[in-house]
Amino acid sequence: xxxxxxxxxxxDGTTRDLAVRDGLIAETTDGEVIDAGGLRVLPGLxxxxxHLRQPGREDxxxxxxxxxxxxxxxxxxxxxxxxxDPVADAAGIVEQVWRLxxxxxxxxxxxxxxxxxxxxxxxxxxxxxxxxSAAGVRVFSDDGHCVHDAAVMRRALEYVKAFDxxxxxxxxxxxxxxxxxxxxxxxxxxxxxxxxxxxxxxAIIARDALLAxxxxxxxxxxxxxxxxxxxxxxxxxxxxxxxxxEVTPHHLLLxxxxxxxxxxxxxxxxxxxxxxxVTALRxxxxxxxxxxxxxxxxxxAREDKxxxxxxxxxxxxxxxxxxxIVIKTMVETGLLDWAGVAERxxxxxxxxANLESRHGRPLTPGEPANLTLVDPAQRWTxxxxxxxxxxxxxxYTGLELPGAIVATFLRxxxxxxxGKAQA
Length: 423
Ligand SMILES: NC(=O)N[C@@H](CC(=O)O)C(=O)O
Ligand SMILES: [Zn+2]
Ligand SMILES: [Zn+2]
Description:
globular, binds zinc ion, Dihydroorotase, DHOase, zinc, dihydroorotase activity
């Protein structure tokens, strides 16, 4: 099927027709005409941090349901985190995830490989075998856990240099977060919950930046959540250290005051922080100190979320609300223009994950037609049942958001049309 997208506004603000022919962007074509007046077209979004839960927790999400949620959120590629059961620490498992993603065909599912066997932080996983597998893994992460042993982290950074891989670190010094339930600060003192101090994140980022510099390798920092982390990143980048960083939509919008509800839907790792942190994160995303937005989409089954705060698993849904939250927090506030949105949600994540030959491409003829059409004027209200995820743990229930994803194209095929997933 070919498409002529009429009168869409590009990230740079110019308005023109876009032809989609034989999977590529073309000068012109016959085919279905899509009236895109008033719509924004973006390069297909790329999520470098998604939990799809398959294999192991198919009751919370599957590659199929997560892929559908991703397409509905405007994504054409997602990096599937390795903390599955079994852990994606060997070639056979990443190949299985990659193959299942291809069979579903709604987004490119790019598996992330574990850094250490079983996410235990002790012995390196089969990094080389995963890199050489059909899945072509380039991003490695023990996400959910921090690679806290500095010698292990150093060896991992050294190892992935050979194939331009990157270590994506969940920065959390485990000794500083024993029993932690929420951000350490005024609110945790008031609520009597054990705190997760900012320094537990900041100290690991500083250490890892120094290690990356020492061995000349590439570090990526997952879900940056504090103003202090932003300062450390600014320092590292000013020294020319090869470090990139992501922020989640929820850390751009929500604060630790929500813990006062004791509703576990607001429990997440790293925890929601203060309004000052939110301000610093928005500024850092605007000025490029933080390179990318990543959802950290973390579906959890009912029994893991609908319980008391301390027993609940941390994590929030994110794929279907990410772009609307970025529009609300960054575009409507004047901090980021649409070219900036394209950069932080498509071009930069594609580069970080080594997907830039296929994703995050410019919207010019000859390029693969990976596209997202958004209606920025349309506002919609989040309901858990309105989302495609199996799980229901969205923190945005009842919130009205700007920006409806109208269509998503993966290599010229519509995965979403008129706001509806195409199978
Ligand atoms: N973010 C979370 O709170 N949870 C993630 C793990 C992680 O991203 O650290 C999960 O796998 O549920
Ligand atoms: Zn994490
Ligand atoms: Zn995660």
